[in-house]
Amino acid sequence: MWRLVILLTIVLSVDCVVIGRIQDAQLIGDDNEVWFNQTREQCICEMVKSNGLILALNYFVTNQTCQFFSLNATNIRLEFFMNCLVIYVNQSTLLNMFQSTTSTLPFTTTTQTEWIRTGDMTVPRSSHSASVLSNGQVLVAGGTSHGVYLSNAELYDPSTGLWTPTGSMNVARSVHRTVVLSNGNVLATGGYTGTNCLSSAELYDASTGTWTYTGNMNVARHGHGITLLLNGKVFVFGGFTGSVYTNTAELYDPASGIWTNTGSMSVARYFPPASIFSNGKVLVSGGYTGSIYTNTAELYNPTTGTWTSTGSMNFARYGHTLSMSSNETVLVVGGIDNSGYYESTAELYSSSTGIWIVTGSMSITRFGHKALELTNGKVIVIGGRNNIYSALNSAEVYSPSTSNWKTIENLTVARMYHSACLLSNGIIHVSGGQLNGDYTNTVEVHY
């Protein structure tokens, strides 16, 4: 006797590939292959990588076994089975196969997305860096863990969901900044060791797994901004030098390994987020000047090496995020203002007018969150903290077409000062952070 089985449609990173799930059910049919001792993440990755050759799979939770069904599978039917998931990539094809063998489908459809825990990092950490390498792996480096400043680094392999230690940086760094260069190497800049603010920089070679010092910055800094310019040079600006908040900026040339001073901002900025436009100009807004949280914004022109003031935000902000949305429009989200109020507000900056316009607010105030630009022009914000200083497990997505936010399902772990990045296959990857005074090594991905 059939009971109702719910068919869940899961959108991969709110765009891209569609993943479906049927709870407490299994597929029965010909042309299948069984893999043992596999995580659900590993099985899903294998199915996605098959580019449609694998239609669906059974995942047996109790013994961590997956059973793959190819596109050519025949005599497919669906049966109730406890502690088993049916996961698939093409709902219409699957439905057609069911319809060829049964006249009544024993399920209904609904829509849901989800976060899935994947392999834990080897070390709990927050204020670390995360970089997506050209081979699709994620390099996490540095940060702090229970009062210890870290130099170690590790690699996440999306195909297995597992972490592997790699070469450590030459010095511990927290609140540093990294960027992936055009040649695939990763540049780590500045940061704080627990006693000193750093001017040093080093390069990670993904082919050898080692870090090598490169030229020092002209100014020691942590909590600075960093952007890879269209010409391949690295642009850093602002931050704290160990004694003062700075408005200085400099350029790194990967060809020579040398840093060169460039034009300074109009004000010092600590934790200044930035977005780069298609014309190469860089927008920087808000941050802490050393005395106030500012609402000012300015544009850097790499051609001239100079800054130009542009329209000010409607709210002063620190600890906010900037994200390129659509049509050369930048979305600023959250942060804290000069009254100590944590913001739920958001604004849009138009590159054509230089004006900020208030748009729809988030459902909750956020500071120390992360924001990612999705391939469909939407922006997702993840975690952070709110007015009562507690870490958040919520996430929401901004739609430029409606100017509204949509709250999605909660993370499995509340977190602030974490990392978030978009993997090459479109999956959202979130790692580490703080949880109300504790540090976490947990990692989750969004389908």
From TrEMBL:
Annotated TM spans: none
Keyword Signal (UniProt): yes
Gene3D superfamilies: Galactose oxidase/kelch, beta-propeller
InterPro entries recorded: Gal_Oxidase_central_sf, Kelch-typ_b-propeller, Kelch_1
Keywords: Kelch repeat, Repeat, Signal
Presence of keyword Transferase: no
SMART domains documented for this protein: Kelch
Pfam families from the UniProt entry: Kelch_1
Signal peptide range in chain numbering: 1-16
Listed PANTHER family: KELCH REPEAT SUPERFAMILY PROTEIN, OS02G0202900 PROTEIN
Protein name, as recorded: Kelch repeat protein
Lineage: Eukaryota, Metazoa, Spiralia, Gnathifera, Rotifera
